[in-house]
Write a structure and sequence with these properties.
Elements (H helix, E strand, L loop, with lengths): L2 E3 L9 H7 L8 E3 L7 H7 L4 H9 L10 H12 L10 E3 L6 E5 L9 H19 L3 E6 L4 H9 L5 E8 L5 H8 L6 E7 L5 H13 L1 H7 L1 E2 L6 H18 L7 E6 L4 H11 L4 E8 L4 H8 L1 E3 L18 H9 L4 H14 L1 E3 L2 H8 L2 E5 L2 H15 L5 H17 L4 E5 L7 H7 L12 H7 L6 E4 L3 H16 L5
Helix pairs in contact: 3-4, 3-10, 4-5, 5-6, 5-10, 6-7, 10-11, 11-13, 16-17
Bound molecules: pyridoxal-5'-phosphate.
Amino acid sequence: MLYRSAKGGGKAVNFEQAILAGYAPDGGLYVPESLPEINVSQLNQWRDLSYKKLAFNILSLFIDRNIISSDELKGLLDESYDIFEHEEVIPFYALKSYKKTYVMELFYGPTLSFKDIGMSFLVNLVNFFLKRNKQHLSAIVATTGDTGPAAAHFIAGKSNLDGWLLYPKGLITESQERQMTTLQHPNIHPVGVYNCPEGGDDLDVVISKLYKNTSFKKKLKLSSVNSLNWGRVMMQTVHYFYGYLKISKHVGHAVNMVVPSGGFGNLCAGGLARKMGLPIKNLIVANNKNACLHRLFSKGIFSKEPIHETVSSAIDILIPINFWRYLYFCVDGNAKKIKNWVDAFEKTGKIVFDANTYKAYSKGFLSLSISDEETLTTMKNLYKKEKYLLDPHGGVAMTAAKKLKKSLGDDPLICLTTAHPAKFPEIIEQISKNKTLPKEATHPSIEDAKTRCQKGYTCDYTHLYKSLINAMETNWELHHKNIK
Ligand SMILES: *Cc1c(COP(=O)(O)O)cnc(C)c1O
């Protein structure tokens, strides 16, 4: 299987090259040449597989054996998922208050968010390639709160990698910040950035500027483990298969899934899983007040609007870059079209899609934009009714589920929850009696991080580009200049 830029530039590359590069040379996202097709009898055979065994089967469709052998792939999956706190990796909870509604809990990884699912495997995979090639790489990560901690956790202590974790200072929770800054490993470099006018999206602007500085990029071997890296999206297809096979009564049974979304990395994977043959009925995009995806799926308009700070801060995202990757597969791989749209969007900040394109990409999707008030009410009521505590992103998804339940009929609904409530104590306090945190909103790892010293850089957004080059070069001179 070869990989190409969704914008059509450059040559086709193999899996390893696509993973190590992150972006394609023309700035596009890598996509597999074609999507594997999975038929009903295959799905039936997979029905009772564990998460790891299912992952092994699905990833084997994307990765040639001469790049990673069967034993190596098994080893990487063990290394990535045996550390999850739940032995099933992803458990389900059947709600009592709503009929046929199941929560798929994606937050049992070490940093308590769904980012652990893709990041765990991707970082181990990158490290595996680097060791084999005797290479070193600097991963730059932009985060709205959860990607950074996950990247930091998995990169920590891996001598072939440095992790530079950029986050908008003040726009992520203290728990999330501490998950990055209390790791004492010398290869972890958190950078808190003051005065980001548009939150996490601003950081991507500086990162793409760094990428365009070719001599710097080459010297430090910059790459990315953000969800622009194909490895993250590929890994995230697995939980859609897993969830569908767990909850459906038979292959073909209509099941709906609702997903709290920002960058569309999670849902892109869901959309691709369905294109591969998984019979999910509706995929539901749950946006907060930052409703870029909702505008796309309800009106066919891709537009960048000013940012709102919300209680679900991990999805305060203005530009869902993985939409391009999904769109590529909805226009029969017409990279020229994708390039024209990306260029037009970068120039004007707005695209109105033609009716055919809109129909092609929105098929099978529903969307909603949920207010903070609705999110908090849902969280509060569910806790009151059945002592089940959602995090605010789960709250966004559950509100969307509740609003659509009637129109979706009697089919089962899976609500993907993406973070442990302990990452958002400030928000949980808003719905708690006397502002005391219920025990469900605490976690030993978060408590432990409170007792540790914090380490990291801070700088102002205005000077971020220069400050970063300086800090990264200094680190490189100190630690890596002897690496060839
Ligand atoms: C990243 C994240 C999301 C959104 O995922 P996308 O792939 O960006 O759509 C949702 N919830 C939480 C808690 C997250 O960290």
